[in-house]
Amino acid sequence: MNLKKTILLSLKWILICALIGFFSGSASAFLLVALEWAAQLRTQNSWLVWFLPLGGLLIGFLYHYYGKDVVKGNNLLLEEYETPKKIISLKMAPFVLLGTIITHLFGGSAGREGTAVQMGGAIADQFSRIFQLDTTDRKTLIILGISAGFASVFGTPLAGAIFALEVLYCCKISLKSSILSFVVAFFAYYTVELWAVHHTHYSIPLIPEMNLKNLLWIIPASVLFGLAAMLFSRSAHLWSAVFSKTITYPPLRPYIGGIILALIFYYFGSAKFMGLGIPTIVEAFNKPSEYYDFLLKILFTGFTLGAGFKGGEVTPLFFVGATLGSALSLFIPLPIALLAGMGFVAVFSGATHTPVACTVMGIELFGIESAVFIAISCFIAYLSSGSVGIYHAQTVKGVKYHLYEKFKRNKLDDF
């Protein structure tokens, strides 16, 4: 390829990255503002929870009659990357955006990452037609969409770029995709900044020195983070299977699930488990959480998403990890903010099989000073969380794959 063609090709991909970054970043900015509005309105009007069943019914009807081709959500992106078939419908973006806003407005326990990633993936894949790209380049677009969505919704461009590569199994990723993933992540990140939409900030003010004593405390805590990730993943799949088997008409699943959630949230005072739970996450860095907070968040999120409501799993994973780490500070002699921060990213690492991206995210969020603690925790949680993650279409390879294949062969993996 001559120099002129190389330059033109590079400019084409920079343009594609800029366009995906702008549109995905703008979509994430709108999502963040909309979810903040929904959370404030729900907090000020507790009676809105009684509309959760009707909201669920609306989501159910929307996907059953008009969105069957995009109902798989994040798993559809992973499947299309692994075995490309047809361009993802652009309607995935508005459908998941509306479904997520409804879920949060009426009190469902869900996150936002899945929404941002699906919007980014759907937007990115449209450029396959516009630029007449082949199958290989389509795979690159899916990576760019995931990267842009993740980076923009969390304000972590480096982690977003690595997450998109790692979640799709990095040994299959080309050098071109790797470079462009970082480019689009920063385009999307700065687009959110351009819209003056801000992300939640966390801090770990005290970092102890890394020594043998502290390491011996980090290991069991990280194993617990991994087990919490395993419980979260299996809970989400369990509730999805339960609803599918017991309620044959899909639109009724979120309707009935919404009735149950509304009754529990209203009569048992469980408001802090609604929506993202950001205030509880922030509080976990300063005050020990209740020992059962992380378990209830796992239960409510798995039930909410399993019933068919829309949203993501990652922010609930942050909630689970931060509150578990915070509660462990009563027994482990490490700073509460450090334990909460370790759990914040380690549980996410275990549930998505992405320890490198989660380590980088921890550094971006909490500072380089905590890097060693964060990295050790993420990798131990990753190894101890089992072979089943939140994305059933994700390909799990490498050390973890071989480790748990032995358990599967001995029929121990189901325990």
TrEMBL record:
It is found in: Membrane. SUPFAM superfamilies: Clc chloride channel. It is a multi-pass membrane protein. GO terms for molecular function: chloride transmembrane transporter activity. InterPro entries: Cl-channel_core, ClC, ClC-type_chloride_channel. The lineage of its organism: Bacteria, Pseudomonadati, Bacteroidota, Flavobacteriia, Flavobacteriales. Keywords: Membrane, Transmembrane, Transmembrane helix. This is Chloride channel protein. The chain crosses the membrane at residues 12-35, 47-66, 87-106, 141-165, 177-195, 215-232, 252-271, 291-309, 330-351, 371-391. One of its GO terms (cellular component) is membrane. It comes from the Bacteria. It holds the Pfam family Voltage_CLC.
